From TrEMBL, chains A, B:
Region (Disordered): 1-30
InterPro entries membership: TrmO-like_N, UPF0066_cons_site, YaeB-like, YaeB-like_sf, YaeB_N_sf
Superkingdom of origin: Bacteria
Source organism: Streptacidiphilus jiangxiensis
Assigned protein family: Belongs to the tRNA methyltransferase O family.
Protein name: tRNA-Thr(GGU) m(6)t(6)A37 methyltransferase TsaA
Amino acid sequence: MSDYRMRPVGHVESPLTDRSTAPRQPDEGAPDAWLVFEDRFAPALQGLAPGQDMLLFTWLDRADRDTLAVHPRGDADRPLAGVFATRAPDRPNPIGLHDVHILAVAGTRVHVRNLEALDGTPILDLKPVLTRDR
Amino acid sequence: MSDYRMRPVGHVESPLTDRSTAPRQPDEGAPDAWLVFEDRFAPALQGLAPGQDMLLFTWLDRADRDTLAVHPRGDADRPLAGVFATRAPDRPNPIGLHDVHILAVAGTRVHVRNLEALDGTPILDLKPVLTRDR
C-alpha cells in the first residue's frame, strides 16, 4: 500500500566533499551552497524568494543505518547514547535536517547560506520555517 | 549503492483518526499521543527522558506524492504556491516534522504532548532540538 521509497528531488552542490572534515553544525564553518532541483520540480519552487528561512531535508547517503547508539560527537570519553537522543548522522533513517537561509533563487537553483551537507547529498524536501499563516 | 527505502521504526498511537478533521498544527487542538517504537530499537532510545524537546519525523502515508502546488491551507482564495514553499502534507517526499515535548518514557513507548499526526502514522526518526553540546 504505502510506498516508503524516497524520490530525491535534487542534490546539494557544495565545496564540502569529505565527511571526516565537514563541519557538524552550520555555525562551525559551513560554506554557502546551491540546492539544485530537477527541472520537473520547478512548480514546487513557486513562492521561494531571497530572505526566507527554510528547513532542508536531505538523505545522508553515506550514513550507517545499522548504528543504534553512539558516543556523542564521536568523543569516546562521552557515554554511549541512543541515536534518537543525538543528531548523529548514523541512524536507521538518516534524514538530514538543515536550517537554511535563501540568498538567491535562479530557476531551479536555490543559493543558501551556511550548509553543512556534503556535495552531491540528495535533497528530499524543503519546507518553510513555521509561521502562523502558512 | 544508496538505499532510499525508509524503514519505519515505530508508529504513532493517537485518538486522531480522520485527516479531514485533524488539526493542521499542534497548537490547534492536537492531543497528547504515544510514540510506539519496535522493541529492536530500544538501544536507540537510551537517553530520552521526560522534559526533553524533540523533533519527530513521520511518513505521511496518506499524502499525494504527485502534488507540486497547492492553495495554502486548502483555501481556494489563496493563490497557488509550490509545495516547497508550504507545509502542505501532499509533496514528493511526504516527511512530517513535528515538535514534541516528552511527557514520559515507558520502555519503548514515549508519551508526547500535542501531536497533530494521525493514529498509525509511521515513525521514521527522532532527533533532539539542537543545543550546543549535542
